[in-house]
Amino acid sequence: MNDQSPPKRLTAADFDQELLDLYDYYAHGKITKREFIDRAGKWAVGGLTAAAILSTLAPNYALAQQVAEDAPEIQGQDIIYPSPNGTGDITAYLVRPTEIDARRPPAAVLVVHENRGLNPYIRDVVRRLAKAGFVAMGPDGLSSLGGYPGSDDTGRDMQRTLDGTALLNDFFAGFEYLKSLDGTNGKVGATGFCYGGGVVNKLAVAYPEMGAGVPFYGAAPDSAQVAQIEAPLMIQLAALDQRINAMWPAYHKALEENGKRYEAHIYPGVNHGFHNDTTPRYDAAAAQLAEQRMIAWFRTYLAG
Questions:
Q1: DSSP letters of 91-147?
Q2: Would the pLDDT of 75 be above 60?
Q3: Residue 197 class from Cβ within 10 Å (0-12 exposed, 13-18 middle, 19+ buried)?
Q4: Greatest CA span in the chain, whole angstroms?
């Protein structure tokens, strides 16, 4: 009999916070892989190499899938929509609830990925929202380069080569596609993570008609543009995320001064990326609470 326990899943508590912050800089292109390995060397002890440390911090998509592609409650497909002001035709993952009441059609939610393309984690988030009763769509910002390459490191490098304005317009075009999509109630919300959280904030500025937004640890918009926001926003932040949180005081002040509808949740003791269940930075309690709050927010403001 083999009574060996499965390997322990690593969490943020297994790493020094300085190392987690260093990984955040690497993951967002602030330092190179070589710089990370050089600076992470002081944690490489007992035969553990800096390269191995990087590997343990990187996403492992075998760890998590919360909603299977063939789950009976949903039906998904890859579609293509035009982005004339962006990078061209965009491939997106569109998932609908299987059972829809024609008298009360569902709202739509755009899901914007991190800085690395439409990876398996974001596709799973799309399915979770469809299972919760929304028509959900996750565009692949790397469509013009052949799509998500199967590696987050490669995807991050690819996304960095794209024109930022064109890429943003690809997600704007996705929002407009959902606005005109048959079988919905005409209301569109948006959520996004990391880079995608910043896109949600930009969508709120550009589209006053947006039904609701839930940005996760995304860059704040220019304070002067906050007056243009009409969508109710639920802003989800990680208490240990110094880089993004440095933008929050000015954003908070602008939201208050302009009388905007918003909630802000800053989850204690967690890092940037805490919702991503494929990395050690994942915090199950905070992620599940944040997702419950997100779904409740959309149900409140996107109802027909």
A1: EEEEEEESS--TTSPPPEEEEE--TT-S-HHHHHHHHHHHHTT-EEEEE-TTGGGTS
A2: yes
A3: buried
A4: 66
Name the nearest CA neighbour of 132 among 96, 88, 79. 96
Domains in the chain, CATH or no CATH each: 12-57 (no CATH), 74-301 (3.40.50.1820)
Q: Please state whether 272 falls in left (phi above 0), alpha (psi between -120 and 50) or beta.
A: beta
pLDDT digits (tens, 9 = 90+) for 221-277: 999 999 999 999 999 999 999 999 999 999 999 999 999 999 999 999 999 999 999
Helix, strand, coil fractions of the chain, as percent rounded to 5: 40, 15, 45
CA-nearest of 46, 57, 54, 49 to 10 is 57
Task: Give the residue from 204, 187, 199 showing the smallest Cα distance to 260.
Answer: 204
Is 172 in contact with 188 (CB distance < 8 Å)?
no
Give the Cα separation of 299 and 109 in Å (integer). Answer: 11
Please, are residues 95 and 75 in contact by the beta-carbon 8 Å criterion?
yes
Task: Give CA angle at 91 (87, 95), nearest 5°.
Answer: 140
Q: What is the reported pTM?
A: 0.94
